[in-house]
Write a structure and sequence with these properties.
Helix content is about 85%, strand content about 0%. The chain is mainly alpha-helical and about 130 residues long. Helix 4 runs antiparallel to helix 5. The longest helix has about 45 residues. The protein is elongated, with a radius of gyration of 18 Å. The C terminus is likely disordered.
C-alpha cells in the first residue's frame, strides 16, 4: 500500500474526528457542561484521581479531543492494510483497546503532574 495514501487517510480521519469533537464539545458551552457530567471525565477522575475543580475543563476537553482523534485515525490507518472485513474488525479491536489504555494513561499522568505543579505553586504563594 502506498505510504502517501496511508498518510492521507490518517490526516483525513484525524481532522474529521477532531473537528467534530471540537465543534460539539469543546467550543459549545452546553457541550462542556455535558462533558463535565460525562463518562470520560468520570473515568479520569476515578482512574487517575484527577481533581476536576483544579482542571481547566476546556483545555482538558481539547487534549482529550486530540487523543481520541489520534486513536481513531491510527486504528483506521492500520486496518487499511487488510482486505477482509472480519480481519479488519479483529485487528481494529486488538489495536483499539491497548491504544486507548496507553493514550489515556499518558494523558491522565500528564494532567496529574500538572495538577501537582499547580498545587506546589499555590503553596509557595501562600507561604509568602
Amino acid at each position: 500500500m502506498d505510504l502517501l495514501k496511508l498518510l492521507y487517510i490518517f490526516l483525513f480521519c484525524f481532522i474529521i474526528v477532531y473537528l467534530f469533537y471540537y465543534l460539539v464539545i469543546v467550543r459549545r458551552k452546553k457541550g462542556l457542561q455535558a462533558f463535565e457530567k460525562g463518562k470520560q471525565l468520570q473515568f479520569f477522575k476515578n482512574a487517575y484521581k484527577l481533581d476536576v475543580k483544579k482542571l481547566d475543563l476546556k483545555k482538558f476537553a481539547n487534549s482529550l479531543a486530540l487523543a481520541n482523534a489520534f486513536i481513531i485515525a491510527f486504528t483506521v490507518t492500520i486496518i487499511e492494510f487488510f482486505d477482509s472485513l472480519i480481519i479488519k474488525l479483529l485487528v481494529g479491536f486488538v489495536i483499539l483497546i491497548p491504544l486507548i489504555l496507553l493514550v489515556y494513561y499518558i494523558l491522565g499522568q500528564t494532567y496529574k503532574k500538572k495538577e501537582g505543579k499547580n498545587i506546589g505553586k499555590k503553596m509557595i504563594l501562600l507561604k509568602r
